[in-house]
Design a protein that fits this description.
Length: about 350
């Protein structure tokens, strides 16, 4: 799929991202072709099914601490049925066990065994609002990412609510990254990637590495990052009523019932409140109608202010999380996955830019 890069300032909702061109900007907004019929049709399906289920869960969880704890635990149980999906054919898998969490390597030929050949890798942080998602539900996605990128992927099953705060999720991500360094993977050959909550966590990991003066990865690749725990901007945006997956008050409920401590939310937990100076190049994909578009644009503004290179794809009508996770069913999802993989290959080896993935 061809995209047309244009230097541009991130723009407010409702405006054409290509309309505010600034040649000096470090942010590139890419023009994406209109969504195919499958992507457009999936919106009403998701709004009348998955979103209604999530809306009901958010309503129950917001009744108090105990209902919230129950809903968070029930939501995490949804990971277990995903075991039946297994590992895609041709994909090799190896589980790693750390003190507080598990992770797994996924790779496929011709990529060499990352336990032996420690050349390059993607560290992946899954989404799920810190209450869902894991190795099983993300295995098809991360296996596809590994195959298309021609790189091994280490997926981190970081601790989540209600047993662990996102600060502890960050600690697990940091442990996994340091493991790669300790194993001999050069930082200039590591990409940190993630979606939704994991996308925000990937950005926060990079900020933490910078603050601790640890080696930064060569690039960040994030999809629909949950980058701001303050819901004010999201709830004021028209997409809060147009998102096909997330109920308007869903993320806010998770913040109030799980992330806030004694009713207080530390602004430092949100990556959009940080200076991005010194961060590596960022590739960011987000749907035009999803609620987290506001977070994505805030990230782009931070990158622009700091002079950090960022490629922004606002994919028409792509529902939250289905930009990549829906690639099995949606051609637009496959296009998005290929674009991300091309970025990954180019960051690891610039000479491979434009090379077709297997």
């Amino acid at each position: 799929m061809a995209t047309t890069p244009q230097p541009s300032h991130p723009v407010p909702a409702g405006e054409d991202p290509a309309s505010a061109v600034s040649p000096a900007s470090s942010v590139i907004v890419e023009t994406i072709p209109p969504a195919r019929i499958g992507t457009r049709l999936v919106h009403p399906v998701l709004r009348t099914t998955l979103q209604q289920f999530l809306r009901a869960g958010a309503w129950v969880a917001d009744l108090g601490p105990r209902p919230a704890n129950l809903i968070f635990r029930v939501t995490r149980l949804s990971e277990q049925p995903a075991r039946v999906m297994g590992t895609p054919r041709g994909t090799r898998r190896e589980t790693l066990r750390f003190e507080h969490f598990e992770a797994e390597w996924l790779w496929s030929a011709p990529v060499p065994d990352p336990r032996v050949d420690r050349d390059a890798a993607i560290l992946y942080l899954h989404g799920g609002a810190f209450i869902a998602g894991g190795l099983h539900s993300y295995r098809r996605h991360t296996a596809r990412l590994a195959a298309l990128s021609e790189l091994p992927v280490l997926t981190v099953d970081y601790r989540q609510l209600p047993d662990a705060h996102p600060n502890e999720s960050l600690a697990d991500a940091l442990t996994a990254y340091r493991h790669l360094l300790d194993e001999g993977f050069p930082p200039e050959k590591i990409i940190v990637a993630g979606d939704s909550a994991g996308g925000g966590l990937a950005l926060r990991l990079a900020l933490t590495l910078r603050e601790r003066e640890l080696p930064l990865p060569v690039a960040l690749s994030v999809t629909s990052p949950w980058a701001d725990f303050d819901s004010t901007a999201r709830l004021a945006h028209p997409n809060s009523r147009d998102d096909a997956v997330l109920p308007a008050l869903g993320p806010d409920m998770v913040v109030r019932r799980g992330i806030a401590v004694d009713g207080e939310l530390d602004p430092a937990w949100s990556v959009v409140n940080h200076d991005f100076t010194g961060l590596p190049p960022i590739f960011l994909q987000v749907g035009s109608r999803e609620m987290l578009l506001t977070d994505a644009l805030a990230v782009a503004r931070r990158a622009e202010a700091a002079g950090v290179s960022l490629r922004l794809q606002i994919r028409p009508s792509a529902p939250h999380t289905l930009i990549h996770l829906g690639a099995d069913l949606l051609a637009d999802g496959r296009d998005a996955a290929r674009d991300a993989a091309e970025f990954h290959r180019a960051m690891i080896d610039p000479g491979r830019l434009g090379r077709s993935a297997a």
